[in-house]
Amino acid sequence: MTGVHLGMPAFPAFPGAAREAVRDEVLRANLRNATHTIRDKRARAVAELADWDRLRAAGKAVKDHTLRHLDRYLLQLEAAVTAAGGTVHWAADADEANRIVTDLVRATGEREIVKVKSMATQEIGLNEALEAAGIAAYETDLAELIVQLGHDRPSHILVPAIHRNRAEIRDIFRAEMGNWGRPAPEPLDDDPRELAEAARLHLREKFLRAKVAVSGANFMVAETGTLVVFESEGNGRMCLTLPETLISVVGIEKVVPTFRDLEIFLQTLPRSSTAERMNPYTTMWTGLGPSRGANGDGPSAFHLVLLDNGRTDTLADETGRQALRCIRCSACLNVCPVYERAGGHAYGSVYPGPIGAILSPQLRGTGSAIDASLPYASTLCGACYEVCPVAIDIPEVLVHLRERVAQGGPVTRDGIRVRIRPAHGHTAERAAMRAARLLLDHPGALRAGERLLARARRLAPRRLPGPGRAWTDSRELPSVPAESFRDWWARERGNPQ
Ligand code: SF4
Predict the structure, then answer these.
(1) Ligand 1 touching residue 67 (CB < 6 A)
(2) Which of 26, 86, 370, 417 could form a disulfide bond with 348, CB atoms 3.0-4.6 angstroms apart?
(3) Cα-flanking dihedrals φ and ψ of residue 220, to 5°?
(4) Is the pLDDT of residue 450 over 80?
(5) Distance 354 CA to ligand 1 centre (A)
């Protein structure tokens, strides 16, 4: 398939990429700390709303209705944006979208742009396309800045640098900021406030110099032609208001019919993503609007590039189309046991985690090794479905895509044989099961073993020896409790053992 970029072409199949990632203990620790913190905060924020289930059902209904009548709402959106002084462009694929944006920037005579964090522009590889045309694109979202300065790839939808800890970020700032503009202040510690201040100073000069900005959008309102960006830092608002020309690249599934529909997503998106009741910055603009343009605030030219890039094909699949309801909150990533261990890079796409496992193979097709393996990158535990604010049944789509891969045969378009093998083979598993059976058949031995282990818990190894080593290469052994469950039960309930 040509024209579909999604960030990382020719990527190895998920099992191979994940195998490398799970061996990295620092990465696993960074991911575990970050995802557990966010998921716990989200659960508390969601529990505050008594009508969460109704909000979730309403979000699903609005998105389903819009997708069913997508042609009508897109035309309504185009008319509203045009009436408000904007220009609408239609891009069938990544190549066409990149060509449109590059030509628009060239027409301004500028050689650099600032960017609001945008999944759609990452999906089409816009930065690389602009670079090839001699145009520098500067990311202004803090996490995206870390990724760009570190010559890295995003690994999370909401927190693209989630795989980096503070010390790593400090080192990146020290080494790279000077190559892109204002250097990091010296000395620079890994204190979050110092890091944020370094980024603020570095970005401020870019905001004040930029004449062109490129953004995405979280939502587009068909009835008014309004685009909406949710963000936490205010950097997006700088991009959306300071430059003279604003170009927004947005997937066609981001449209909602009416302004009132935003009421639902203004409640569900912040709580699901950053666990906030309301995100700090919500910017809305309608074409050039009455106060925007040459005689008022904001840009004097606005272009909206509507991106298909596989979305119409996805819409044609009755089971798979629910993936287009996604509002990119990333809640499904933060609860996924596979994502927590493998990290985002293993998914070979700008869309990692459970949503990436169903979206990328639909936007790109299942012809490559990575896309044929993504539907298997899941335990089907269903945690992603439970937290999804638009009730996307990700396990259902995963199974559906597995069928598609199986029917398509195991050999990819490139002649690569796709094999999904268990990580440690069947022999070790059989041996472990035999040992477990032996112990469970002899409760006395099990009890004695538990007590011995509890007493000697300080000596418990962090890794298993022999064949078990492969298992602990990619996992932490659970710590041994001071008291076995049986002893706790006997103490609490007085049941003699
Ligand atoms: S699939 Fe649902 S939970 Fe995952 S990012 Fe999309 S909206 Fe959020």
Answers:
(1) no
(2) 370
(3) -130, 135
(4) yes
(5) 8
- Cβ–ligand 1 contact at 390 (below 6 Å): yes
pLDDT per position as a tens digit, 32-79 = 998 999 999 999 999 999 999 999 999 999 999 999 999 999 999 999
Structure token digits, residue 220:
């587009």
φ, ψ of residue 417 in degrees (nearest 5)? -85, 120
CA 185 to chain centre: 31
Which residue among 390, 393, 396, 397 has the greatest number of ligand 1 atoms within 8 angstroms of its CB, and so is best to mutate?
A: 390
Do 178 and 184 meet the contact criterion of CB atoms below 8 Å apart?
A: yes
Residue 376 has pLDDT above 80, yes or no: yes
pTM, two decimal places: 0.82
Tokens found for residue 346:
């293993």
Specify whether the CB–CB gap between 356 and 347 falls below 8 A.
yes
Roughly how many angstroms between the first and final C-alpha of the chain, as a whole number? Answer: 65
HSE at residue 179, side-chain half, CA atoms within 13 A, is 10
> Which residue of 56, 332, 339, 347 sits with most ligand 1 atoms within 8 Å of its CB, as the best mutation to test the pocket?
332
- Please indicate whether residue 327, judged by its CB atom, sits closer than 6 Å to ligand 1: yes
pLDDT of res. 317: 95
Query: Which pLDDT score, from 0 to 100, does residue 28 have?
Result: 86
Pocket of ligand 1 contains residue 332 by CB under 6 Å: yes
Q: Is 62 in the pocket of ligand 1 (CB under 6 A)?
A: no
Q: What is the C-alpha separation between 310 and 313, in angstroms, rounded?
A: 5
Protein residue closest via CA to atom 3 of ligand 1: 388
pLDDT (tens digit per residue) in 100-115: 999 999 999 999 999 9
Pocket probe mutation, ligand 1, options 329, 339, 386, 397, max atoms within 8 Å of Cβ: 329
pLDDT at 421 > cutoff 50: no
